[in-house]
Amino acid sequence: MSDFTEPAIGRRAEATAYRFLDTLSYVRVPGSATDDRVSVVEMHLRAGHAPPMHVHDGADETIHVLDGGVTVHTADDARSLTAGDSVVLPRGEEHSLVADEQSVILASTAPAGFGEFVTAVGEPTEEGTVPTTPPSEDAIGQVNALAGDHGIEIVGPPPAARDGRRSTHLTGQKERARPRGAGS
Predict the structure, then answer these.
(1) What domains, with CATH codes, occur in the chain?
(2) Please, which residues bridge with residue 124 across strands?
(3) What is the pTM of this model?
(4) For this UniProt entry, which segments traverse the membrane (predicted)?
């Protein structure tokens, strides 16, 4: 029987701020509060934020844009989202996003896992400001070292930004072709 029998509420005053790569992130609802069914992370993104192309092998990811705008990239497509828009990315399919401007998103995974990745890789911070610089080499190393432990596979470099510039952080990843529909 599940331990998740009451609503799981994430309160702003109770959330720890993490510098997760080049974001200011808050795990609003950890997986432990939902018997690992879902986790919810609020992420404040700097303009140009672009994680590497990656796959969540065992989780669907939902991104809801609260403020600003992002472009969501898949293996075959790129779609722009603005405040109020949402996308659900299926497990096993490669994806990433580029923050077209400073933005705020809610990212959730079902089952849970992404919130735990943020706390494992991120550094707690007292600063309530969005980072203005790319992540450090140490932070990138943490992502590379721990992604697999959290069901995330890095499959390529970050997507190019809208204006043709390529994000320079988190590059150097192994780049490989992934068959469409591959994954669990």
Answers:
(1) 15-156 (2.60.120.10)
(2) 18
(3) 0.85
(4) none
Q: Cα–Cα distances in Å, from 12 out to 16, 23, 59, 69, 164?
A: 9, 17, 25, 23, 36
Token readout for 112 is: 């849970």
User: How far is residue 153 from each of residues 17, 23, 145, measured CA to CA in Å?
Assistant: 25, 20, 11
* pLDDT tens string 137-172: 898 899 999 999 999 999 999 997 444 443 333 333
Distance separating alpha carbons of residues 148 and 89, to the nearest angstrom = 19
Main-chain dihedrals φ then ψ at residue 138, nearest 5 degrees: -65, -40
**DSSP of 118-172, one letter per residue?**
HHHHSEE-S--S---SPPPHHHHHHHHHHTGGGTEEEEEPPPBPTTSPBP-TT-S
